[in-house]
Amino acid sequence: MYYTYVLYSDKLKKRYVGLTNNVSRRLAEHNRGESQFTKGGVPWELVYFEELETQQLARAREVFLKSGSGRKWLDENINL
Fold first, then answer.
1. Which of 11, 21, 64, 75 is deepest in the core (most CB within 10 A)?
2. Number of structural domains found in the chain
């Protein structure tokens, strides 16, 4: 299984959308500063995730959530 996930940094007031096959491990990596893109926003909070059957489906959902329509969907469905 693969997961598309959304993190939120209260420090930056920003979301981050990604995909992984292990959500808890990936969140820990983000919070240890192991991702160049997210290390400035530590601590990150997991605010949403979806389980998908294949990496391709998870990638497609990640791309959607990063699009204008996807950001709108997140704004309407994830209370931050």
1. 64
2. 1
Q: Where are the beta strands (DSSP E) in 1-80?
A: 2-9, 14-20, 44-52
CATH code for position 8: 3.40.1440.10
Kind of pairing between the strands at 2-9 and 44-52:
antiparallel
Domain hosting 13: range is 2-77
Dist CA 47 CA 23 (whole Å): 11
Whether 40 contacts 16, CB under 8 Å? no
Residue 62, both tokens? 């990640």
